Recover the amino acids of this structure.
């Protein structure tokens, strides 16, 4: 969510390719962050649109629309404020087991719990993302959907994989392992 005044400021200059991304956690102007739901609450019903079907069959078509009713009014969402969320998120990343080296997909699948994988630059991120079959695209110098340089996705439904960028170590106080 964002304030109307923020939307009024950003919407006229928002690139057409970003319209589907406005809910993603993405660094933007003036250091602001935008919260995106982990479970998709949008639906792409065809391959025609701003991306001209470029990524539809590989990344968008398999996305399952959320079918679980959520009582948002009954939930404490205080952890989503900037200071609270950064602490919450960095705690999740620090608790994840670090893995490295070859066969990252196999290692991640065989570890119980969340894992974190460090990448040193865009080329290494793209290589790792390709191994896992996730979106490899960068926008404005960061991976798409990254929060503080970290991309999160799930394997085998419950376990998270954190792809951790070089600046994330400093920003979130994550050990270099």
């Amino acid at each position: 969510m964002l304030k109307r005044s923020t939307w009024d400021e950003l919407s006229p200059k928002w690139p057409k390719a970003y319209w589907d991304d406005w809910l993603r956690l993405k660094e933007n102007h003036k250091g602001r962050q935008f919260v995106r739901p982990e479970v998709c609450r949008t639906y792409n019903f065809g391959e025609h649109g701003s991306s001209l079907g470029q990524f539809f069959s590989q990344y968008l078509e398999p996305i399952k629309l959320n079918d679980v009713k959520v009582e948002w009014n009954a939930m404490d969402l205080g952890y989503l404020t900037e200071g609270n969320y950064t602490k919450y998120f960095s705690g999740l990343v620090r608790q994840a087991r670090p893995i490295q080296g070859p066969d990252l997909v196999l290692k991640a699948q065989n570890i119980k719990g969340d894992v974190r994988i460090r990448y040193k630059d865009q080329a290494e991120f793209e290589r790792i993302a390709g191994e896992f079959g996730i979106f490899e695209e960068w926008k404005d110098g960061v991976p798409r959907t990254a929060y503080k340089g970290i991309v999160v996705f799930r394997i085998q439904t419950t376990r998270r994989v954190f792809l951790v960028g070089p600046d994330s170590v400093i920003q979130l106080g994550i050990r270099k392992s």
